[in-house]
Write a structure and sequence with these properties.
Layout (H helix, E strand, L loop, with lengths): L4 E6 L5 H16 L4 E6 H5 L1 H17 L1 H7 L3 H17 L1 H11 L3 E4 L2 H14 L5 E4 L16 E3 L3 H9 L7 E2 L15 H7 L7 E6 L8 H10 L4 E6 L4 H10 L7 E4 L5 H6 L3 E4 L3 H10 L3 E4 L5 H12 L2 E4 L2 H12 L2 H14 L4 H12 L2
Parallel strand pairs: 1-2, 1-3, 3-4, 4-5, 5-6, 7-8, 7-10, 8-9, 10-11, 11-12
Helix pairs in contact: 1-17, 3-4, 10-15, 13-16
């Protein structure tokens, strides 16, 4: 049997899309040690300059004028306007893409973001290529940029997400509700005492994990300041992601905090941090959400980004695994209610575990190996 080759495509290094592709890649190698994989930032590969411009513009918009992103996200009028531009970008990328596919000659392709998925789908159509293509959605609300005829399978987080794709004309047979792919280590629930000990935290005090996604966004400074001044009996873990300014600010001040506080920059042990936490205060990015569900960690959502995170929030609130605060001051009030209501936290935790599909990466890998023959 020949060695199979799988190409994985995502956009942006510091993103949930990249985390998802890495989880699937690890699952592929676990199922087939002889497999050859290539995991590429597709936007950087085809348009490195444009990638920097778009990333900078996106970050500026969501920080300063999030209402603009709210208007642009999955807006049918906008979609119609940019359709021609998208086709031009796809055609301009054909040369580089063809060279990559000719050289690597993949038996299957997995895309964890809509841009590369559309790029490959159009390539398949243009060149009449018969390469199995799987699109993996990492948010609970699918937008119109995912819809292409040449996508063989769509992996969706939930049945509800799949129904929205069906409403947009996707054949139900192409939709697999496997969940959002995360690392297999989130299925491990052992060693909590050792984690508390290593972090010098107390297991008998409520632990609040504060995160702002991979890039450490949101009102984290204000949140930490308010919680530290509150009378609530708690200890804090703060994961800053790639936000170096936030990390330095916290490191400089934590020695003066009244509450025991542990600060991480880009943490590679989020599974351990979640495992020992009582609740997470966070933005509801798709990967963070899937990881929290896997360990049964109740969520307190604050400042979700418009668009996909707003849609994720709606899903999580409806399912009863999260509550939402309108601002940092409300976080303190809501935390006080929750931390003194252990029964509600237990109900939220159990519901989270029941919703989790923590083996999604393995299921996606198995599907790819099945259709990439």
């Amino acid at each position: 049997m020949k060695k199979r080759k799988i190409l994985l495509l995502y956009i942006s290094e510091d993103s949930g899309h990249h985390c998802a592709s890495l989880s699937i890649e690890r699952a592929l190698h676990a199922l087939d040690p002889d497999i050859e994989t290539l995991n590429i930032n597709s936007f950087n590969y085809t348009n490195p300059i444009l990638e920097r411009i778009i990333n900078t513009t996106y970050m500026s918009v969501i920080k300063r004028t999030p209402e603009i992103w709210d208007y642009l996200y999955d807006n049918p009028k906008v979609m119609k306007s940019v359709h021609r531009l998208r086709d031009i970008i796809h055609r301009s990328n054909t040369g580089k893409l063809k060279a990559l596919l000719d050289e690597f000659s993949p038996d299957g392709i997995i895309c964890t973001q809509a841009f590369p998925c559309g790029l490959i789908a159009d390539y398949k159509k243009t060149f009449n290529a018969d390469i199995p293509l799987i699109g993996v959605l990492t948010d609970y609300a699918p937008h119109s940029y995912w819809i292409f005829d040449k996508v063989d399978r769509y992996i969706v987080p939930s049945e509800e997400t799949g129904k929205k794709l069906i409403d947009n004309g996707v054949d139900p047979a192409r939709i697999m509700p496997y969940g959002i792919p995360i690392d297999s280590k989130f299925r491990n629930n052992a060693g909590r005492e050792g984690i508390f000990s290593r972090l010098s935290l107390k297991p008998d005090i409520s632990t609040v994990l504060i995160m702002g996604g991979t890039q450490g966004l949101g009102p984290i400074k204000e949140l930490v300041t308010l919680l530290d001044k509150s009378p609530l009996p708690l200890q804090m873990i703060i994961a800053c992601g790639t936000n170096k300014r936030l990390f330095k600010w916290l490191e400089k001040r934590k020695r003066n905090f009244k509450k025991k506080t542990v600060v991480f920059s880009f943490a590679d042990n989020i599974d351990e941090l979640m495992r020992i936490s009582t609740i997470i205060v966070t933005k509801p990015g798709g990967i963070t959400t899937a990881e929290a569900l896997a360990v049964g960690l109740p969520m307190l959502i604050v400042n979700p980004l418009p668009g996909q995170e707003a849609m994720n929030t709606k899903f999580l609130l409806n399912e009863g695994v999260a509550v939402k605060a309108q601002n940092p001051a409300d976080v303190v009030i809501i935390l006080e209610e929750l931390l003194y209501n252990k029964n509600k936290l237990k109900i939220m935790s159990d519901k989270a575990k029941s919703l989790s599909k923590s083996d999604s990466a393995s299921a996606i890998a198995a599907l790819m190996l099945e259709i990439a023959k």
